[in-house]
Every structure is written in structure tokens, then in C-alpha cells.
Design brief:
- By secondary structure, this protein is of the alpha+beta class.
- It has three domains: 83 residues, no CATH class; 147 residues, 2-Layer Sandwich (Beta-Lactamase); 164 residues, Alpha-Beta Plaits (2-Layer Sandwich).
- It contains eleven helices and twelve strands.
């Protein structure tokens, strides 16, 4: 009887080895079969004990596929739960994208790299979003998406594409010879609209298992929702900090940027400048052509001024026809040089109005430098504003420096300067 039991266990081990169970799970099932066969040998009819033991083993072996499927589904549910938590914990788009690529690398043990590109369906434009490879390197894009490559094809068709062997697939014709392995491109969709593409590659060739495809699909669904929500949040936030007429940052954005600039200047011990500027004679433009044309003049002029500024400088609409320019790490002489170039730039600028008349514009401004003219943000604005109104009164079309440590403005002295 013992020999029969051992024979059955050997056969069971062989069959289990042909499946997908881990060695630990195989041993657990063999132990269960052995225990049940011992029980059968004690309580079954001696004449049928061998058949009964075979029957027990056969039933368990037949159920292993079901057990494995249940285990996979449990793992997938657990993965889905983790994805939901990690991908909805933030509305910051870069943070969401970083979470997606991290989860993607965790899903597949043999993943080489994952890349996400955001897609503008209206203009057929792909923009790099995030990347992560198995060395832990982030945001290292392998290459720009090729016009007829995997990423563009997935974005345009909205279909998942599996490439079992990069070296033997039409989408990878003409790529560098060192490109190898397998890759899957998954569209990130929301209400039938493709919002991005996620590519997940492996070093080895071959198809992705059904379990891997299900998990990747779960991630793609969750990622799509998270990306759309974060994009909407980013758009709304941007609108809250943008001026609707000119497209420039608004007063709220200016206040926050000025506060940050001031903190950095105090910490690093470096100067920066605040320039208050407005268009000369803008009231006449509004009175002559109406507010719609006046808004157009503001939009075109301020856009022209913003061109050529350093990326570290900040131009915002303060109100009406007045804008504020913050010049990062700029002393007095540099601020005067920048404003002189702005004046010269405007001298050759023309706007054609609806009646065909060419409008020549000039600007007047006031300059305040931290910490020479003021040591606080409100003090800098006040000092630059005072210099602006002084320039409008005595020297229109020029930029004047603030007085050192300006006191409170006297509103009555500013009457009639608009």
C-alpha cells in the first residue's frame, strides 16, 4: 500500500511540475495529497484503497488549475487595490505619472523599462510624460516616438499592440541594431479618447502571459482615470493663475512668485529687481476703439514684451494696462540695461488697428531692487510703483529707479497721471 502511495505521489509531482505552480505551492499540494491518501488508507475498504487514493490525488490535481486561477484573481484584486490607492493619492500630474511607471515596473518581474507619453488627439502630438527602467533611472527616454513606430500607431489606432520580438516586427524596421527583446504598447483611454500611451519592454523575447496582460490592462485603466483627473486639475489650477485677457500670469500668481523670489534672495544673499510698467495713452485707445480692441492691444503688446526674456524672469499682469516684471538675480545696473532694451524693442513695434492705422506704443516704468530700495515684497511693489508714477509725471516713456526705502504713497499726488 505504501508503494502505491509513493507511486501516486511521484506521478503527482511530475504532473505538477508541468504546470505553472511555484515549487513551494507544488510541495504544499503534494503534502495535502499525502495526508488525504493516508486518511483513505485507514478508513477505506482494503480492496479499493489504491483506487480511492488515486481518485483523491486525481481530484486535487484536476483542481490545481482552478486553485491557480483563484490565486491569480486574488493577486490581481490585490494589485488593483494598491493601484487605486497609489494612483489617486495625488492630483499633481508629474506625481501621478511617476506612480504609474513605478507600479508598471512592479507588475512584471522581468520588466526592462516603461515609458509614458501623453497624447493630444486633436493635433496628433505625443509629449513625454515619465519613464523608469530596471536600474532605477527615471525620466530617461530611450528615443523620440517615431512617426510610424509603436507609440504613434497605438495612439492613433487606440489598440493594444504586442511585439514578441523587436528584431522581427514591421514597426521596428530600421531601428538601431542593439534594440532587442519584447514590448507591449497600451493605449491609455478615457471615454474612447486616447490620452496617452504606455510602453512596457522586456529584455527577453516572447509573448506576454494572459495574467500579465490582465494586470497591465488593470493598470492602464486606472492610469487613464488618474491622468485625466490630474490633467483637469492642472488645467483648472493654471486658469486660476492666468489672466484671461492677456494669457499672462495674474496678480495671484505674481504675489506667490514674488514671495518665493524674496525668500530665495534672502537665503542666498542675492539681489533681484521688480519693474512696474504700463502702456502710455492706453485710455485713449480704449475710448477710440473700444475695450475689445483695447484687450487685443494688451494681449499682443505684452506677448511681444515677454519674448526674449530669460526663463528665470517672470512677467505678470498687475491690473489694467499695468504689468510687473520680476528679474531674477539682477542688480541695479542690470535692471537698467534690461529696461533700456525693452524701450528700444518697443520703438520698432507697431500694431495695425481695425481702421488701418498703425499704432506706436511706448511704456513707462519704475524699478526697485532688493534689498536697496526695500526689504519686503510689499515694500518693493510700493517702491517700484512710486517710481512708475514719478516717471509718468516727469518723464513719460522712460524707466526710473525707486528712491531708497520708500515711505507710504500719497494718493493725492498721483491724481491725473493715468
Amino acid at each position: 500500500m505504501k508503494d502505491h502511495r509513493l507511486e501516486i505521489l511521484v506521478q503527482a509531482r511530475k504532473r505538477l511540475g508541468e504546470g505553472t505552480l511555484s515549487p513551494a505551492d507544488q510541495n504544499n499540494l503534494l503534502q495535502l495529497i499525502d495526508i488525504l491518501m493516508l486518511s483513505v488508507s485507514r478508513y477505506s475498504n482494503p480492496a479499493s484503497v489504491t483506487n480511492d487514493m488515486r481518485s483523491v490525488a486525481e481530484n486535487i490535481l484536476e483542481k490545481q488549475a482552478l486553485l491557480e486561477m483563484l490565486r491569480q484573481q486574488a493577486n490581481e484584486l490585490d494589485a488593483l487595490k494598491k493601484l487605486s490607492i497609489n494612483l489617486t493619492s495625488s492630483l499633481d500630474l508629474p506625481t501621478v505619472l511617476e506612480a504609474v511607471v513605478t507600479e508598471a515596473m512592479n507588475l512584471l518581474q522581468d520588466a526592462r523599462a516603461v515609458h509614458i507619453f501623453l497624447y493630444d488627439e486633436d493635433y496628433d502630438i505625443l509629449e513625454f510624460g515619465a519613464a523608469l527602467n530596471n536600474k532605477g533611472e527615471r525620466d530617461k527616454s530611450l528615443s523620440e516616438p517615431r512617426p510610424n513606430g509603436l507609440t504613434h500607431t497605438v495612439a492613433r489606432t487606440g489598440e493594444r499592440i504586442v511585439v514578441p520580438d523587436i528584431k522581427d516586427h514591421p514597426l521596428y524596421e530600421g531601428v538601431p541594431v542593439d534594440w532587442d527583446g519584447s514590448v507591449i504598447g497600451i493605449p491609455l483611454t478615457m471615454k474612447d479618447k486616447v490620452v496617452g500611451v504606455m510602453n512596457l519592454s522586456r529584455s527577453r523575447t516572447g509573448h506576454f502571459s494572459p495574467s500579465d496582460l490582465r494586470l497591465i490592462g488593470l493598470l492602464a485603466n486606472q492610469a487613464s482615470v488618474a491622468i485625466v483627473n490630474a490633467s483637469i486639475h492642472e488645467k483648472v489650477s493654471k486658469q486660476a493663475y492666468s489672466d484671461t485677457v492677456t494669457g499672462l500670469p495674474n496678480r495671484r500668481a505674481l504675489d506667490e512668485h514674488l514671495e518665493n523670489e524674496w525668500r530665495n534672495a534672502r537665503k542666498e544673499g542675492k539681489p533681484f529687481a521688480v519693474v512696474m510698467m504700463d502702456l502710455d495713452g492706453f485710455k485713449v485707445i480704449n475710448d477710440t476703439y473700444g475695450h475689445a480692441e483695447g484687450d487685443k492691444v494688451l494681449r499682443i503688446t505684452f506677448s511681444f514684451i515677454s519674448q526674449g526674456l530669460r526663463s528665470s524672469d517672470f512677467l505678470a499682469r498687475y491690473g489694467g494696462d499695468e504689468v510687473t516684471l520680476i528679474l531674477n538675480q539682477t542688480d541695479t545696473s542690470s535692471a537698467l540695461l534690461v529696461t533700456q532694451k525693452l524701450r528700444e524693442k518697443l520703438e520698432n513695434f507697431r500694431i495695425t488697428m481695425v481702421d488701418g492705422r498703425e499704432l506706436v506704443l511706448t511704456m513707462t516704468g519704475g524699478i526697485a531692487v532688493y534689498p536697496i530700495h526695500a526689504s519686503t515684497t510689499t515694500g518693493l511693489i510700493r517702491a517700484a510703483d512710486e517710481a512708475l508714477y514719478r516717471a509718468k509725471k516727469y518723464n513719460r516713456g522712460e524707466f526710473m529707479l525707486a528712491r531708497n526705502m520708500t515711505g507710504p504713497l500719497n494718493p493725492s499726488s498721483l491724481a491725473g497721471l493715468g
